[in-house]
Amino acid sequence: MTEQSHGSETRKLKKTRFVRINVFFFLIFLLFIALIVRLGFVQIVQGEEFSKEASKTEAAYATLPAPRGKMVDRYNRVVVDNQSVPAITYTVDKATKTEDKINTAKRLAEFISFEPEFLKKELKERDIRDYWLATNAEKAKKLLSKKEIELEPAQTYKLQVERVPETEITKIKENLEQQELAYIYKRFSSGYQYEPQIVKSTSLTEEEVATVAEHLEELPGIDVITDWDRIYPYGEYLKSIFGGLTTPEQGILQSREDYYVARGYARNDRVGKSYLEYQYEDYLNPRKAKIEYISDNTGKIVSKKVVDEGQRGHDLKLSFDMELQMAVEKIVEEELVLASGSHKLMDRAFVVMMDPSQGDVLAMVGKQLDPKNRSNVLDFAYGAFSTQYEAGSTVKGATVLSGYQDGMPHGQTFYDAPIYLKGTPEKKSFSAYPLGLMTDLTALQESSNVYMFFVAMKIADITYVKNGPFNASLEDFQKLRNYFAQFGLGVQTGIDLPQESSGLQNPPDEAGKLLDISIGQFDTYTPLQLAQYVSVIANGGSRIQPRIVTSIHEPSEDSELGPIAVNKEAEILNRVNNTASDIERVRKGFKLVVTSGTAQGRFSHDVAGKTGTSETAYYGVNRKYWGVETNNLNFVGYYPSANPEIAFSVVVPWASNDSDPINKRIANRVVEAYVDLQKKYATNQD
To answer: Residue 50: its pLDDT value, please?
Structure first.
């Protein structure tokens, strides 16, 4: 190739390279132009939108405890109140990770501690397994096969929980520090995001509060707040009836979870778990303080503020007279302890006092001897409406009134002598000799069983034939029981407390049991039912629903009750199918019982009522003696006899003999206590 041709080739190659470089630079130029246009578009057109996104925040809300409503007695004396207590809480936000919880738990554990017994009670094995998995992430992965790792997270976690090595669980159970960490982690993980969880409030010392407060900056999510506890100015008096609350560890009752969640409760909220606290949860529950949390787009909380201070729950005004309650409790306790030495199976006694016209329960007393130490007396007030006993002759007023309803005339006579029926043991009155010719009044006065037997036979339309058959049907049993139900015997009274018993109506194993019902020897009734029954007689024939809460009030800032939110008027459940003269006739008989009958000389005030002794088999806590023959010693009455202010029942089960007048002593003493208090109240008003 000549030099000329070689030069020509070189010039062509340089030209080609120059063209390529120019094209390359042109493309780069176009890309820069496109980038500039895009940046301009983003800055000018979408700049504001992206700026908003960068500074975007999100609000979430949480609640803090507020005090529950108070309870006062009929004279506005506070019986259930609140006191402020500090509590340590932990709040999870969107940015919180498992390792954050563990780190905070370890730091917090340096400042607070828990009793071993508390941890043993509250820390379950599942909690320990969860804690181990949280603190051993790599080891937890090795518990799964490659195939299992591909399962849904819920499924894989379930498998991991099941496979936590027993040796690791044992190590934690034997190490108090690890148990504390496991418990703290459990509390950290108990709720939802932005829902403060109480880590510790019970047994929280001032030193712990101060130390945690000083180190809050080192404890993300931790706070020290004001919580509330119940206090009882009258100590243990009626505390069981006031009811209990769940702990923060227990939270809402699982049996009513849907109910609480639908009403906006947090899962760790304390709720009423028994009696009045449970029954009136909707009113006692406060409007909780509301906190607004502002978080940025990373989930980190940037600010918080209180948007609602909250409000105490509604207050309850109760029917109880606390001074009367205390006096009656003392009386029952003294009499029970005094009699217990002579009656080895007698271990309980009850008194219920009511306003017969309004249904207000003025005092509800139940006392029980400690099975392990009979010199120790336990509260058993709830037994007055949740346990039942044979009432004996106290029900004879209902039997006579049932006879009137069935057509028996006033003054009806029957001869009191032993009754002999085919296939039935001899049936007679309590006395060793026949009482002779009885009227309705003398039958009540002398407590004639035989008279009541004839009333029951009349109701069943059965004619007595000595040694003849007694063909009472199940319909006859139901008929007599229906009569009794009008007075509240054998049916729930309707009291505003949960777990009320309706008594026990056993299926009869022989026809003669119909006669036993008429004298209170077969069916069983609660002390509250007996008080309602005698109230019907005292008020002239109305079965009034017993009530504990008489009104519900708006919360007030001062010591006075706020405006009435709900006024619970006295409710008449039914009127008995007796005339006024029928009721007055039985009231006359009840007065004869006290002035010249089975309770003669036992009362120092103008009381009318009916004694009742029931032969029964023991069925108490000491199973070794089940079936032993004992006696229930009872009394129902009202004061004063003409215009009753109170009606009451006294029930003393399982006495060794029927000669002890403990039922009458208690009845007289509780009436005296009531009279003395009325004088005191009248003097104070003057």
So the answer is: 47
Amino acid letter, residue 185: Y
393 belongs to the catalytic site: yes
Burial (0-12, 13-18, 19+ Cβ within 10 Å), 189: middle
What DSSP designation does 559 have?
A: S
- Report whether pLDDT(519) > 80: yes
CA dist., res. 130 & res. 125, Å (int):
9
Integer Cα distance of 290 and 287 in angstroms: 9
Asked if residue 228 lies in contact with residue 82, where contact means CB atoms within 8 angstroms, the answer is yes
Tally of residues, the chain: 686
Structure tokens at 626: 């089940």
Give helix 474-485 / helix 449-459 axis angle, nearest 10°.
Answer: 110
List, for residues 93-133, the tens digit of each pLDDT value: 888 899 999 999 999 999 999 999 999 999 999 999 999 99
Q: What is the per-residue DSSP string for 616-673? A: EE--SS-GGGTT-EEEEEEEEEEESSSS-SEEEEEEEEEES-S--THHHHHHHHHHHH
Indicate the pTM of the whole model.
0.85
Task: Point out the catalytic residue in the list 393, 447, 518, 649.
Answer: 393
- Please report, as a single letter, which amino acid is at residue 306: V
- Pull the structure tokens for residue 360: 């207000």
Q: What is the pLDDT of residue 11?
A: 61
Q: Can you tell me which residue has the tokens 């109170």?
A: 646
- For residue 657, what are its two tokens? 């003999």
Q: How many CB atoms lie within 10 A of CB 494?
A: 17
Cα–Cα distance for residue pair 284/468, rounded to 1 Å:
62
Tell me what pLDDT residue 528 has: 98
Q: Is residue 329 a contact partner of residue 307, using CB atoms and an 8 Å limit?
A: no
- SS3 (DSSP) at 325: helix
Strand partners, 377: 369
395 in Cβ contact with 611 (< 8 Å): no
Band (pLDDT 50/70/90 cuts) for residue 54 is very low
How many angstroms separate the CA atoms of 625 and 635, rounded? 25
Rounded CA separation 125/588 (Å): 67
Alpha-carbon span 59 to 669, nearest angstrom: 64
Distance, CA of 389 to CA of 484 (rounded, Å) = 16
The distance from CA 183 to its chain's CA centroid, rounded to whole angstroms, is: 27
> Contact 447/589 with Cβ under 8 angstroms?
no
Average pLDDT over residues 214-232: 93
First to last CA, the chain: 144
In the three-class reduction of DSSP (H, G, I as helix; E, B as strand; rest coil), residue 275 is classed as helix
Given a contact cutoff of 8 angstroms between Cβ atoms, the answer to whether 285 and 314 are in contact is: no
- What are the pLDDT digits (tens) for 264-285? 888 888 899 999 999 999 999 9
pLDDT of 305: 79
Query: What is the C-alpha separation between 419 and 647, in angstroms, rounded?
Result: 34
Q: Are 447 and 598 in contact (CB under 8 A)?
A: yes
Cis bond before residue 563 (omega within 30° of 0): no
3-state secondary structure of 495: coil
Name the percent of the chain in helix, strand, coil, to the closest 5.
40, 20, 35
Q: Compute CA distances 186 → 75, 92, 201, whole Å.
A: 45, 13, 15
For residues 85, 88, 93, 97, the Cα torsion angle rounded to the nearest 10 degrees is -160
Residue 8: HSE in the Cβ half-sphere, 13 Å Cα cutoff: 5
d(CA 564, CA 315): 9
